[in-house]
Write a structure and sequence with these properties.
With 489 residues, this protein is of the alpha/beta class. It has eleven helices and 25 strands. The radius of gyration is 23 Å and the shape is globular. The structure holds alpha-L-arabinofuranose.
Amino acid sequence: MNQIKIDPERQIGGISRKIFGGFAEHLGRHIYGGIYEPGSPLADENGFRKDVLAAVRRLKMPVIRYPGGNFVSGYRWRDGVGPKAQRPARVELAWQDIESNHFGTDEFVAWCRALGTEPYLVVNAGDGDMREARDWVEYCNSATDSALANMRRANGFDAPHNVKYWGIGNEVDGEWQIGHKTPDEYARTYKEFAKVMRWVDPSIKLIAAVSSGWGYQPVERTQLLFEAAADFLDYLSLHWYVGNHEDDYEKYMTLSEFFEAQLSAFEGLIAAMRQEMGIERPISIALDEWNVWYRARGNTSDERNNLEERYNLEDALVVAMHFNAFIRHCRSVRMANIAQIVNVIAPIFTNQEGLFLQTIFHPFELYASNCGDIALDVFWKGDTFSGGDYTGIRTLDVSATIDAGGKKLSLFVVNRSLIETLETRISLADATFAGDVAVSVVNGPDIKAENSFEQPEQVTLRESRDRAAGKDYVHAFEPHSVTALVFEI
Ligand code: AHR
């Protein structure tokens, strides 16, 4: 029998709700035809799709990043404010499209407010300059009588938008980016942008674009950023996309080890720089683009369809493993933004008549709904598997949280076995189970099962209740499933 031992007093630390963040970029059918479709019978008076709003609300995203992504490195925010008829359509180089600019800052902030989420804006550090960046902060956040604050008022927003999170550039480490920068160029750019943005609004939190992966000098970039601009660093941004490139399920399931290695390495890097420079305040990781993305990537000549990844059950398990890693690394990962939200590598998929929820929607909702305030350091052992270069990987991937009051314990378990139901003894130290257990399971008929307009519930969430008393509780975890057990203790 597998074993999970939980001591509610072995706490790793507080969890930032911002690990349930999202990302909305202007590309493909994400904004136009996804979030925003004026004239559609499904849209509200602002042109926002009501069915999409309702689905996104279920994900409880506390923060959403916008407008890119690669798109931002050629974006002029002024193009996207003011009367729509006067907004210029521009050739958009990152995704080779025409951008109408009918959806811009004010629409995005209004959409966030309708969701109850914090907007996180990324400024153009590609072909944009620091004046433009600083002006955008002023347009959004100034309560003064300045021309830019009055421009916002004239556009219908009397009160400041109070945008708290600001990123400076996107994936500047890649040649694919408009305005790619060497480590040194970016460190200097970051500092000068950050300085004037903070002078406009000292309360903003700043996010530096550090790494699209180990191939792009993350160590040097981190060091130079600290040396040039430590006072202006709140978060360091990383991005990654993963996939089952070789159609090898076991190898795909060992991605948990990749997540552990990446996050441990980056938290070590940040800790070393803080130590060397005597910085006491925390500087956190923002994994502000992550997801499964490998199929709809250059497979067809139609760029829009290229981006519309269709997910299956194994991808949902990988999304769940991400959240387990974020919970275990709660001290360093203080923001994470799934890329993206609607249609484009997204949990929600629309057409003109409606939407369906992709497989990856369900683990996201499961974690966002059941995650507690504090991460626990869980011990578990039992069955193992081999995949890729790894042997002896525990078949269950586990994390646990507790609420601030110490009475509600959430246990998250991914069973990566293809065929075995894994009976597991869950034991509590220094506490007892006090009755009710809420059981939520994401599963489907097989690991390749997908949802679609025709079959929207192949992979879905099932809920039931159970009872637990004393110090031990035995649960049978279904093959290829994600389970949340929420106990009263
Ligand atoms: O999310 C899609 C793209 O992936 C983003 O525009 C870019 O930042 C990343 O390479």
